[in-house]
Amino acid sequence: MLGGLIAQTQRRRTVLRYQQALCPSCRSRWPSNTDWQKHLTSTAYDRWSRVWSLARYTNRAIYRTALALLDERHRTVLDVGCGTGLMSSMLAAQGRRVVGVDLSAAMIARAKRHSGSSVTFLEADAESLPIATGSFDAVVNLISLHHYPDPSRAVAEFRRVLRPGGRLVLIAFDRNSHYIALAQRTNRWTKRIAGVSWQKTSAEVQSLLKSAGFTRIAIRPVRYWIKTFAVVAE
Ligand SMILES: C[S@@+](CC[C@H](N)C(=O)[O-])C[C@H]1O[C@@H](n2cnc3c(N)ncnc32)[C@H](O)[C@@H]1O
Prior knowledge:
Elements: H1 2-18, E1 21-22, E2 29-30, H2 33-48, H3 55-58, H4 60-68, E3 76-80, H5 86-93, E4 97-102, H6 105-115, E5 119-123, E6 136-142, H7 151-161, E7 162-173, H8 178-185, H9 187-194, H10 202-211, E8 217-222, E9 228-233
Parallel strand pairs: 3-4, 3-6, 4-5, 6-7
Antiparallel strand pairs: 1-2, 7-9, 8-9
């Protein structure tokens, strides 16, 4: 309750501070607050792209959990917010056809360099996927949802691109984690290094998924140093 109120106040402050904002990196002005938030996030991840391959080791528990939640029915997989394509490559190595999508141009450039031709990578926004309706057996979304200004639009997009009975595997940091609480307190600093973010609880994600039309939803904890949960939804 109190956490929700604090998050809401911080969100409102962010909105006010960044209306008509000037980007510290490229000095361009951003008329829409949403565009500006996405710009901040993608430039932050452009910088992260140089070292993101280390996540292969640090985030191993997250990738392993996601792999374990897919089976042989999931031959085509869309990896939304794919970063440098670590998960996409692991999925392709299992013989699946994979498309990776990310907002950061530098992340996508690195993904293309490191993953060879077995995966297709696209620079695109999770809230408006350039993907045909009903074209994937599974969508994977790993620690990326918290960056989306309109997560309900993104979740509706996940549902749209899945074939009937297709599966969403979503892994997210829990807003109730101590790490997230600390990050919220040092808000300006985290925005510079990790983009704009609005972490959620598993109940909030569940409610988003229900509104998007997912009916079978299961949630489980992920063993990771930040409190993290995995959601499987169909
Ligand atoms: C914490 S990284 C996770 C990367 C990858 N899923 C992994 O686990 O290795 C979050 C990723 O989400 C991407 N992202 C943020 N907002 C996005 C959006 N609106 N559409 C697509 N990708 C987005 C970022 O560029 C970044 O690569």
